[in-house]
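Write out this protein's structure.
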Amino acid sequence: MPPEENGPGATTEARRSPSSGRPRIDRARLDAVFGAILPEQTSDESSPDGVPVSDGGQDEWLRRQVPPHHG
């Protein structure tokens, strides 16, 4: 039985993208190897309690941390 065109037994040539000649990205295989995809919102974009932080919140905190002589 011949290997599937893009299956695990496929040759490198069979797995290549026809338009670019580069290997196709197999998302299921990447997820199996490296784990699930990254979340839409990372921990540095939300407060510790999980509530999203407004865009101006982080900037305002940073402005308050600037010493007076830099200001």
